[in-house]
Specification:
Blueprint (H helix, E strand, L loop, with lengths): L1 E5 L3 H13 L5 E5 L10 E4 L4 H14 L2 H11 L6 H14 L11 H23 L3 E2 L5 E5 L6 H11 L5 E5 L4 E5 L4 E5 L9 H7 L4 H14 L8 H7 L17
Parallel strand pairs: 1-2, 1-3, 5-6
Antiparallel strand pairs: 4-5, 6-7, 7-8
């Protein structure tokens, strides 16, 4: 057995796929960033991300898949599901081995799992576009903290760049410890450690604009006033806004004191 160790990026995974074929590696498992100690007797193959190798795999996939099927591979990778890199590799093997398009062959386990993973990422992307709540800092930076199940920042970047083109903003994924930053011209990926108390009243008072608390509370009051108690449907509300998102939603955080 060979552990194929890559840098956890999509380009790194594509490079790994290329080298598995190039070196004719058999019985492979994937590991991100470092070898797994669970496989004591495996050989290790370390992958250095190579744009040319990654692009050759992408070209081969584009030839054999529809635009939607091709996009689903990236969405599935971003799902962060356990062993999704290995599932995707088996899917890619099926794509390259078949003389016909395999996207609708849902009887195949790997085709079905990739479809499900891509759908999960798509649903999480849609929710993040609706659930991001910005706060304004003293230096006129709008920032938001999110904790999505899937790695959706690359998929929501364009949406927020178009919607808030005249504002500097940062959206930070606290689960994956990175963010996307927009400087009024371009967006870039940033690595940083956010304060663990970033939602606390004291911390917000230190970094936020003086009027930010007023506007946050105004939004809470608006949300409360539009919520008709007699028509309250908790089950439906939780379906559209699961509790795991409430941590960073302004309307769900008590009034700051």
């Amino acid at each position: 057995m060979t552990q194929v160790i890559y840098d956890s990026t999509f380009e790194g995974w594509l490079t790994a796929v290329f080298e598995i074929y190039e070196l004719k590696l058999a019985d492979v498992v994937f590991a991100k960033n470092e070898a797994s100690n669970a496989l004591l007797f495996s050989e290790n193959h370390f992958v250095v991300t190579d744009e040319n190798k990654a692009n050759r795999v992408l070209t081969g996939l584009k030839t054999n898949l529809s635009n939607e099927g091709f996009a689903n591979i990236y969405r599935a990778f971003l799902s962060d599901l356990d062993k999704i890199d290995e599932t995707l590799f088996q899917y890619v093997k099926y794509v390259f081995a078949s003389s016909v398009n395999i996207e609708e062959d849902l009887a195949n386990t790997f085709v079905l799992e990739v479809r499900k993973a891509a759908h999960l990422t798509g649903k999480e992307t849609h929710r993040m576009k609706a659930f991001v709540r910005f706060k304004l800092t003293k230096d006129n930076l709008y920032y938001a903290i999110v904790e999505p199940d899937c790695d959706v920042l690359p998929l929501i970047e364009k949406h927020f760049k178009n919607r808030y083109a005249d504002q500097r903003w940062l959206i930070y994924d606290s689960k994956r410890k990175y963010g996307i930053y927009y400087d009024l011209e371009t967006t870039s990926t940033v690595q940083l450690q956010f304060n663990a108390q970033s939602s606390s009243s004291n911390y917000l008072a230190e970094i936020c604009d003086d009027n930010e608390e007023f506007f946050q509370n105004l939004w809470r009051q608006y949300f409360s006033s539009t919520n008709i108690e007699s028509r309250k449907n908790t089950k439906l509300h939780l379906l559209h806004m699961p509790k795991r998102y409430w941590k960073y939603l302004t309307e769900k955080i008590p009034v700051l004191k």
